[in-house]
Amino acid sequence: MRRRASGCPPRTCRTTVGAGKKALPSAATTPEGRAAEIRDAALALGFDAVGFAPAHLGPEVRARLDAFLAAGMQGEMGWLAERVEQRAHPQGLWPEAVSVIALGMNYGPEDDPLALLERRDRGAISVYARNRDYHDIVKKRLKALARWMVERWKGSELKVFVDTAPVAEKPLAQAAGLGWQGKHSNLVSREHGSWLFLGEIYTTLDLAPSGAEVDHCGRCTRCLSACPTDAFTGPYRLDARRCISYLTIEHHGPIPHEFRAAMGNRIYGCDDCLAVCPWNKFAHAAREPGLMPREDLSAPRLAELARLDDAGFRALFSGSPIKRIGRDRFVRNVLNAIGNSGDPALLDVAAALRADPSPVVAEAAEWAARRMDEAARQQGSR
Questions:
Q1: What is the mean pLDDT of residues 179-194?
Q2: Model pTM score
Q3: Which pLDDT score is estimated for 200?
Q4: Domain boundaries, the chain
Q5: Is 245 annotated as a binding residue?
Q6: CA gap 135, 330 in Å, rounded
Q7: Most buried residue, 23, 130, 139, 168, by CB count within 10 Å?
Q8: For residue 158, which of 172, 146, 168, 169 has the smallest C-alpha distance?
Q9: Closest-CA residue to 280 (of 182, 198, 133, 212)
Q10: What is the DSSP letter of 305?
Q11: 357 pLDDT higher than 50
Q12: What angle do CA 306, 337, 335 make, to 5 degrees?
């Protein structure tokens, strides 16, 4: 739970209210007026989507979460089973909340992120992780907006959230009109496709709701059929234990053998179900510099990544969301991609890590070297 924000730095006030005025206009006193002011301020701060909803979610949100957890589909993400009531109900987390402000920041790629999957000597990093950690970027903007709001409506209280608290971000975003939860379970926007980072502000202010968005998926099932590991048990139902994003980020031990070949060269996250969504035709590339891809992370060489020690890993991924999984899990992912590469030049790279101090790395290196050696023998016998 975040602290109440207070104060308003001059830069933020100039950005959202306007410089050169001798006196600020009176703060809006109606739910509609307050929502309009907040929308304008949020857009001026760099958010791409803004919506408002009551601090309430229907019982279907709790029912879906309960069914997901009962099936064990959260895997090692034990935190999802904690504070379930708070996650399903905004007022369960903060009883004083009256309204929720849902905000989105576009991180759309310039190019097709799936094109890199054909370059087997390179590692495919999910679009969202190719530069700065979005948590830091979004949180900074949320706090700036929060400071302005508390100064504007004195006596009001609020809390800001970016992914790390028990908040049902996607249902709230749909309730606020930012988009709808697609069959891949992620948010889809008619303006931004599947490429929105989300953040929320819970507030004691009464704000006029934007109106919920309806589902526009229709009969389309492209996202479901695109999944390399068949992680969807049906429309809107994801088994995280089979998802490549989960396996490369949240899963700590060796990657289950049944998924290794299907993972290809994906070394951190997976964009397949997002990238094939037809609504992406309306999306546009990110305009926030911190969300634009770094050149060295757009198509990194597997051989170079596999040779990273802990210090090199930390230096390369300083400020990146990748840093949180640590060197061992990351190199494990890289070795899985090397094993799938079919590139003889990478055999020695994998073999050199068979004696790595990390058991998870050593096991992945053994698998990769053995797989490549078998592939080479099969080619030689043809």
A1: 97
A2: 0.90
A3: 98
A4: 10-110+128-203, 301-375
A5: yes
A6: 20
A7: 130
A8: 146
A9: 182
A10: H
A11: yes
A12: 40
Residues 267-304: pLDDT tens digits? 999 999 999 999 999 999 999 999 999 999 999 999 99
Amino acid identity for residue 236 in this structure: Y
Residues 6+ apart with CB under 8 A from 138: 103, 105, 162, 197, 198, 199
For this structure, is 239 an active site residue? no
Between CA 229 and CA 279 the distance in angstroms is 23
Active-site entry in 40, 112, 163, 343:
163
Let me know how many helices (H) and strands (E) the chain has, helices first.
17, 10
pLDDT by residue (tens digit) across 201-249? 999 999 999 999 999 999 999 999 999 999 999 999 999 999 999 999 9
Q: Report the alpha-carbon distance of residue 125 to residue 248 in Å, rounded.
A: 10
- Amino acid in position 213: E
Could you give the residue ranges of the DSSP H alpha helices within the chain? 10-16, 31-44, 59-70, 84-88, 90-93, 134-152, 169-175, 222-226, 244-245, 257-260, 272-275, 295-298, 302-306, 310-316, 326-341, 347-351, 359-380
| Residue 187 is assigned to a ligand binding site | yes
Average pLDDT, the chain: 92
Q: Is 13 annotated as a binding residue?
A: no
